[in-house]
Structure formats: C-alpha cells, structure tokens
Amino acid sequence: MKSFLRWAGSKRSLLTQLRSYWPAQGHRYVEPFCGSACLFFDLQPGSAVLGDLNEELLFAFRAIQRDPYVVLECVRRLPRGKSGYYSVRAMQPSSLAIAERAARFLYLNRYCFNGIYRTNLAGNFNVPYGPPRSGKPPDEAAIVSASAALKSAVLVHGDFEKTLEHVQPGDFVYLDPPYYMESRRVFREYGPGAFALSDLKRLKTQLNRLDDIKAAFVVSYADCTEARDLLRRWSPRRIPTRRHIAGFSGHRRTAYELIACNLSDVPGVNP
Ligand SMILES: C[S@@+](CC[C@H](N)C(=O)[O-])C[C@H]1O[C@@H](n2cnc3c(N)ncnc32)[C@H](O)[C@@H]1O
Questions:
Q1: Could you give the number of structural domains in the chain?
Q2: Is 3 within the bounds of a domain?
C-alpha cells in the first residue's frame, strides 16, 4: 500500500532495500521521523508508533485514523483553483476542528508546489500553488485504507526523542532524519525546525541507547561526512538513488544513501 501523501525526502524509491530489513510481523514498528510513513504503509505492521515534529501531519494522521469519511467530506467542501488554494492556505489551522484541519493539510499537500512542507518564521505554511502537475487529492479508497492501517498505531507529535521513549526491547525502529550537511546548502524543507548538528549528536546517543536495550534499528541518511561519522559503528551500505535538486522534481541527480542497521546484534532478527 502506498502512502497518501507527497513528501520531500520520502523514501519511496528505497522501499525495496528497506523492506528487506523488516523482521516480519510479531515485532512492533517505530518510526520517529515518519513524514509520509511510506515504509509503514508498505509493511502495514500489526502494531506501531509513528512520530514527527510536524504538528499538522500528526493531526491529519489522527483525524484519518479516527474518522476518514468526515475528513473526506471536509476535503470535498474546500474551494478549488488558484484563488481557492490561497484562501485555504490562509486559514489558521488552530481555529479549525480536527477533521477540517486534516482536510486542509491533505488539500495543501496535494495542490502545493512539489509536495513541499515549508513554513515561515511565524509557523505559517507558505508554499505556492503547484498545479497542473500535482494531481488530485487522494481518493476515498486511499484514505479509508490508510485509516485501517493507522488503527494499530500510536501517534506522537514531537521531537524524535519523545517517540523513542516508547521503544522496548525487540521493537523494530526505522529512522529517516532530515539531512544535515554543513558542506552544502540544503533546501530547508521542514521550516524553522530543520535539523542541526546538535540534533545529529542527540541521534547518535539514541542509536547507542537503542542498541543497548536490544531494539533493532535501521537508519537511512544521505551520504555525507556527518552521516559517515554518525553511522561508522554500524558499517553502513552505500546505495545509489535519484534525488531532487533543491526540491525541484524536474531536476534529479544520482546521489548516494547510507543505510545502517544493528540487526545482527538483536536476537531473533535476521539482517
Ligand atoms: C526525511 S523526512 C522522513 C520521510 C519519511 N521516511 C517518508 O518516507 O516520507 C524527515 C522527517 O523528520 C521530521 N522532523 C524534522 N525534525 C524532527 C525532529 N527533531 N524530531 C522528529 N521529526 C523531525 C520532518 O518533519 C520530516 O517529516
């Protein structure tokens, strides 16, 4: 099953490799940087914890989990076209009921330029209108099956450390953090909360902790000096992938992704 969201940094193109690490049902799935959660929707684990710093994303997952038909009805009521888009974008999410808030998020995700999520310093979504290339909002079948998949999930809004507090021995954790690269100017896809060097240090501490408590983890990260330092202990594989340049879908280049895991250290889990 595909994720119903367009998401900058989605690992859809790496699903074949990522799927092979999943030790199969019976393990709980935890994803603290879930974004569009494409691996989660692909695997449809029986039990899961999904977390992200993006509050609108988590509100949308919660509303779809709870009542997909109400969310779909709210999406249908939103005005279409360029001026409709800017009026929906101008709505204050905190003033909306949860289903309306989720509908706004789905609508903006579909009609914005390249499916990027970006806010200004005041926290307001500021991505311009994207059609004709962005397609239609997800249909009823996609949202209803996403709701069924999300029924088993605990949804956490917050920093990755908060989601990782849920991890228990034997859980399977997939971590796909935003890229931090000092050597390059990185397109700021996630607004003012973009990843900093201090976050990478916190992440390194968390990977060691997960290993200590015998939780299995898989990390994917753009190949760069900082990632090699972060993942050295776990002997990462280097995998070619096609990546958008500065968020523009027409401009792609071959880049490399590192995938590291501690699976051989975890009893009962095969690499
Ligand atoms: C590379 S994307 C994950 C993409 C996801 N694997 C997918 O397939 O769509 C990274 C995600 O981390 C989130 N994020 C950024 N900083 C975070 C933090 N400190 N804690 C938790 N999530 C964070 C962003 O909102 C974004 O959704």
A1: 1
A2: no
> Would you place residue 262 in the very low, low, confident or very high pLDDT band (cuts 50, 70, 90)?
very high
Domain of residue 107, residue span = 12-265
Q: Which atom of ligand 1 approaches the CA of 117 most closely?
A: 25
Q: In what order do the strands lie in the sheet with 237-245?
A: 153-157, 48-52, 29-31, 172-175, 216-222, 248-261, 237-245
Pocket of ligand 1, beta carbon within 6 A: 7, 9-11, 32-33, 35-36, 38, 52-54, 159-160, 176-178, 190, 193, 195, 199
Helix axes 98-111, 68-77, angle to 10 degrees: 60
Q: What is the pLDDT of residues 83-121, one digit of tens each?
A: 999 999 999 999 999 999 999 999 999 999 988 899 888
Q: Whose CA is nearest to atom 12 of ligand 1?
A: 33
Amino acid at 154: V
